Amino acid sequence: MNIPISKPYFDECEDENILKPLHSGWVVQGKFVQEFQTLFASHVEVKYAHATTSCTTALHLALVALDIGADDEVIIPSFTYIATANVVEHVGAKPLFCDIELDSFNMDVSKIETLITKKTKVIIAVNLFGLCANLEEIIKLAKKYNLKVIEDSACGFDAWLGQKHSGTFGDIGCFSFHPRKSLCTGEGGMLITNDDELNSKIAQLKDHGASKSDMLRHKEGGSLLPEFNFAGFNYRMTDMQGALGVCQMKKASEIMCKKRILAKRYDEALKELNFLQVPTFSVEYVHGYQSYVCLFTDSQDVRNLTKEKIDIINIKRNIFMKKLESCGIATRQGTHAVHTLGFYKEKYDLKSEDFLMSYAADRLTIALPLYPQMSDEEFDYVVSQLKSCSNSE
């Protein structure tokens, strides 16, 4: 049996919808992108949504829209996908890394304040693996120091903290529709905001800086090009992707319900495996389960270990993952500790132990297969092999 780490949930809706832009001849951003944006904004309860080519370009747009550039500093978690840091570099700013909490894999808010300087302008709060960061405390700090907040909610679809959806706490929220995310348009992203001024600016920036979109000019008629008031980008989603997005939104509740049922089954099935810590969070959080990420602890308190001891457990984790792979079960490390990667390690002279909890998460996380169409047979096989491989240590 071969079990993938994830699988997009497509059916006849996507089969039919993706052909409609081809048949109409309107394949750039058009009515399907508009409908997708409307459905998404309604689901997350926000005023404005802008479909983009990826979450990475949405994050880049967010920084540009907030006028972040050279000599500015942006606080980001040190355990996140590299795109979070890359967009900061691309606007000429400096990323300030913040360590994480191992329970949530999100930014440790107790460490943020010590990083803030006169040059700090933004906190990028990452809602990792589908769990909101401690956004209420992050917003309090941002207000205290007059900072902007961008939520990197690439993994955060249908993640909630209290009555608010991820991405709606800060000034701007950014989402991904990569195939490993709960909703998939191939590639693609979404930027959301409740700010009228930011909305107008972002609408132009994503479209080369044009004052009117192609669709609006088409509806209004006329042959003249619009005004260009910004040096913008081509970050527009195609209408074929929008057609997929519309279908994904229409079955979003079904997708999320099935993923949460599977996550609860994992919780129950794995609770007796002392070497594996399953996702944990308090009752005010609703997990979006983009991934089901566990911590391979080897039955030890990882928070109190040295780098050398973490490295020893890392070897055991890697052997464990190879055993699962040999049984046809795909796994992944959760994501990476960006401060350990070549570019950032060398440019900012960083050591692995500088952000030790991020380093532990990098070396010890395991993402297990999770997708809405996962069968009982597939699920039971994964669980049986998890137990079998642990017994063969």
TrEMBL record:
Domain of life according to the entry: Bacteria
Catalytic center residues: K181
Protein name: DegT/DnrJ/EryC1/StrS aminotransferase
N6-(pyridoxal phosphate)lysine carried by residues: K181
Record's keyword terms, sorted: Aminotransferase, Pyridoxal phosphate, Transferase
Molecular-function annotations in GO: pyridoxal phosphate binding; transaminase activity
UniProt similarity note: Belongs to the DegT/DnrJ/EryC1 family.
Species name: Sulfurimonas denitrificans (strain ATCC 33889 / DSM 1251) (Thiomicrospira denitrificans (strain ATCC 33889 / DSM 1251))
Family annotation (CDD domains): AHBA_syn
Coiled-coil segments: none
Protein's GO biological process: polysaccharide biosynthetic process
